[in-house]
Design a protein that fits this description.
The complex is a heterodimer of chains A (about 240) and B (about 500).
Chain A lengths: L1 E6 L3 H10 L4 E8 L12 E7 L9 E8 L12 E6 L15 E4 L20 E4 L12 E7 L20 E7 L11 E5 L2 H17 L4 H5 L3 E6 L9 E3 L1
Chain B lengths: L9 E5 L9 H5 L5 E4 L4 E4 L9 H5 L5 E5 L12 H13 L2 E4 L14 E3 L20 E3 L22 E3 L3 E3 L9 H14 L3 E2 L16 E5 L8 H6 L2 E5 L10 E3 L6 H7 L7 E3 L9 H14 L6 E6 L4 H9 L5 E5 L8 E2 H6 L4 H14 L7 E5 L5 H10 L3 E4 L1 H6 L22 H4 L4 H25 L5 H4 L6 E3 L4 H7 L2 E2 L3
Parallel strand pairs in B: 9-19, 10-11, 11-12, 12-15, 15-16, 16-18, 18-19, 20-21
Antiparallel strand pairs in B: 1-4, 2-3, 5-17, 6-20, 7-8, 13-14
Helix pairs in contact in B: 4-14, 8-10, 11-14
The chains are: A alpha/beta (about 240), B alpha/beta (about 500).
């Protein structure tokens, strides 16, 4: 295991050292907002104490990143594979255009989380947010799964405005008793069925064991599932000149 | 069924004396215009399906066919022209957004045609490129303005990553999806042979084309299709697409109907689902956010690749370019409003954006005024039609130019502007296997190589004529240009004098 005391070092130097490190276990102490940590990395585990900067784990390619604290914007941007675990909250644009792997957030995520996530064959990205997500969650969703547990929302919809606008693939699970009031017409909502739960069982198990939660208790509550109405929403929009 | 208000735009004229009923036209037309009538024992045509792509005309062995614009017309009206009336009929019928393709056909000024190039006479000798070496090699990337030495006093010669081009011409972005496998292969092979670059566009990189990586620019656009670390590292440079000249301010949709198995695999999305590129990158709402993406891509490629930021030419382009030049990007690509597209809303294509000539001149001037011109290289596109346009662009300040429509024409495109239908009879803008195979990549790449090589000769001739033997000496050399028929504002923006001055 390699330990780096980060302090106020410049991000490019730090990331160069991380890229060069051959150790599979890396601990970064005293991280003070350095950006792009773990960018495009594979095959190792990075534990972060402190607060990483924007674009943590962007293009991540199989690496595991554990943050003992909060993360900032664009965490897991265009991530391809691997795991990002945040023992705290995340900023805006978390998991933007994510293509594979998992992001687990213990608390809340900011605006624009999971926009344009997509899935293909074995690449099935998952974002699980413990408490609440900001507005624009899962806009243009093309594939993958977003789960928002609303742990401290007392049954209220755990998302902001414009959830799922332009959605044309994937699924959004919301643990709540009432739906967001402004769901767009591209989205259809239904109560989660046993089949829906079966699909997320493994990821949720993983999440609950990571953050010491009771999976069965969570699953006994009510979930909505949001799906797109059509995978070709733009088909009827055009006429040829 | 309601009344059809639309009269066919074209008439298929068939010379009955020449036609031998070989039915080639019928087999070649994916629009199903031609048919053989057994009772009449002759070929017939449905004019309403014709898009005027000339495939049948070119393949008719007896030259029996020609396509003629119909002389049927509405009552003459300078304001309500026939096309305007027809567009209203179309929208009244369908309720749809008008969809079009390729660059705008509208009659906007083409400033390339209003600029003239200088030549040497008496006072300085012109140069014969057949006799003397002419340097057209171009490096794209940040240029250091300071000489740095190490503690021993030795020069530090490491530079930021650069693209090296034999000729300052590149093939601009066209995605696999908007154009065919064989069209992409033709571009890739030609780029390799010419020592230049082609651009994947936003559709990922087909696994067969990773071998052309040294001559490939990989694109990252708002949909992030097929983007992963392997892709980012496969090319010689990465282009962040913020905008496109034909449709500034909006995103793109590849309809589900065009997403077959191979496209699905390359874009990494399910078959037959729409591929939607949102209008903005939702992780970029400012220059600071752009800087973040630029550096995320640099980190992902360990600072080995130049990063290009491509924007459409719009009203405040010089201020936007100034921001990009400070974002850490290595190259700015600007796409003018006459640039092509595989599909764009017609109103956007025909009304949004500004001509590349004015955008280029104003950006180059602004970056020079601010002392940051060397932070970036400038690449421009959006209807570069000839070597003369290339010369004029470089003299206005471009480091290199992007061509796409010219390249497609070389591959056989006839600019019928119906790419959006996906039934390109020339095998270019289609995914139908029986049409794609009509374009032979060996032949296609050779035609591209021929075109660019011919332009190279012409560029050298004109440079020699000016007494210039290095493309460096032409760059931003606006004294080599004069305007013709331009007003004072236009001359001032272009930074050139009028002919005769």
């Amino acid at each position: 295991m390699t330990t780096i005391d980060v302090g106020s070092r410049a991000f490019d130097e730090l990331n160069k050292e991380i890229r060069a490190c051959t150790d599979t276990e890396l601990v970064l102490n005293n991280v003070q907002g350095q950006r792009y940590i773990g960018c495009a990395l594979s095959r190792r585990c990075i534990t972060i104490e402190g607060t990483p900067g924007n674009a943590l784990g962007s293009y991540l390619d199989g690496c595991t990143i554990i943050v003992n604290g909060n993360a900032q914007d664009a965490t897991g941007d265009t991530m391809n594979d691997g795991r990002i675990i945040i023992h705290g909250s995340c900023g805006d644009a978390t998991g933007y255009s994510m293509r594979g792997g998992k992001i687990f957030i213990r608390d809340s995520a900011g605006y624009r989380s999971g926009i344009h996530m997509k899935a293909y064959e074995e690449k099935q990205p998952v974002i699980i947010i413990g408490d609440r997500a900001g507005s624009f969650l899962g806009e243009y969703l093309a594939g993958g799964t977003i789960i928002v547990l609303g742990l401290h929302q007392e049954g209220k919809a755990p998302v902001g405005y414009f959830c799922g606008t332009g959605m044309h693939g994937g699924k959004i699970y919301l643990r709540c008793d009432t739906l967001p009031s402004d769901l767009p017409q591209q989205v259809s909502a239904s109560d989660a069925t046993p089949e829906d739960f079966a699909e997320i069982s493994e990821s949720l198990e993983d999440y609950c064991s990571t953050f010491a939660l009771d999976k069965e208790a969570l699953l006994s509550d009510h979930f909505f599932v949001l799906r797109p109405n059509s995978s070709t929403p733009y088909k009827m929009l055009y006429t040829n000149v | 069924m309601g009344i059809n208000y639309l009269y066919p735009d074209f008439e298929v004229h068939r010379d009955k004396d020449k036609c031998i009923n070989c039915r080639v036209c019928e087999r070649q037309c994916a629009n199903e215009v031609h048919a053989f009538d057994k009772e009449l024992n002759r070929m017939i045509a449905d004019d309403s399906k014709c898009v005027n792509c000339h495939r049948c005309v070119s393949l008719c062995p007896t030259h029996a066919l020609k396509i003629v614009k119909t002389d049927h017309h509405f009552k003459e009206n300078a304001n309500w022209k026939g096309e305007v009336i027809q567009d209203i009929y179309r929208q009244a019928e369908s309720g749809g957004v008008l969809l079009a393709s390729m660059g705008t056909p509208k009659d906007y000024p083409v400033y390339w045609d209003k600029m003239l190039i200088n030549a040497s006479q008496v006072t300085n000798p012109s140069i014969d490129p057949l006799r003397e070496p002419m340097e057209t090699r171009t490096f794209l990337g940040q240029k250091s303005t300071k000489i740095k030495r190490d503690d021993q006093g030795r020069l530090i010669t490491t530079t930021t990553p650069q693209l090296s081009l034999n000729i300052p011409i590149m093939f601009s972005a066209m995605s696999y999806g908007s154009i065919s496998y064989n069209a992409h292969k033709s571009l890739a092979m030609a780029a390799q042979e010419l020592g230049i670059f082609y651009n994947t566009g936003e559709g990922g990189l087909h696994e067969d084309f990773y071998q052309y990586g040294k001559n490939t620019i990989v694109q990252v656009a708002s949909g992030r299709f097929g983007v992963h670390p392997g892709y980012l590292n496969a090319g010689a440079a990465i282009e962040i697409k913020m905008g496109q000249g034909a449709k500034p301010g909006i995103g793109g949709h590849l309809p589900g109907s065009k997403i077959g198995e191979d496209i699905s695999k390359t874009r990494m999305i399910p078959e037959h689902a729409d591929a939607i590129s949102p209008a903005p990158h939702h992780d970029i709402y400012s220059i600071e956010d752009l800087r973040q993406l630029v550096f995320a891509l640099k980190e992902a490629t360990a600072y080995t690749k130049p990063i290009i930021v491509k924007v459409a030419a719009v009203h405040n382009i010089s201020a936007i370019a100034s921001g990009i030049a400070r974002s850490g990007a290595d190259i700015i690509a600007i796409d003018g409003f006459r640039g092509g597209t595989g599909a764009a809303p017609a109103r956007t294509r025909d009304n949004v954006g500004i001509p590349i000539e004015l955008a280029l001149a104003s950006v180059d001037s602004r970056l020079r005024q601010e002392g940051i011109r060397n932070n970036v290289s400038l690449v421009v596109g959006g209807s570069i039609r000839s070597s003369a346009d290339v010369i004029k662009a470089i003299a206005l300040g471009a480091d290199a130019i992007y061509v796409a429509t010219s390249a497609l024409l070389a591959l056989g495109c006839h600019l019928c502007r119906t790419c959006q239908n996906g039934k390109c009879n020339w095998g270019i803008a289609t995914q139908k296997p029986e049409l794609v195979k009509r374009l032979n990549p060996e032949v296609g790449s050779q035609r591209l190589v021929n075109l660019i090589t011919a332009w190279e000769h012409e560029i050298k001739e004109m440079m020699g004529g000016m007494g210039i033997n290095s493309i460096e000496a032409l760059r931003g050399n606006r004294l080599m240009l004069r305007g013709i028929g331009l007003n004072e504002t236009e001359l001032q923006i272009l930074g050139i004098s009028h002919a005769g001055q």
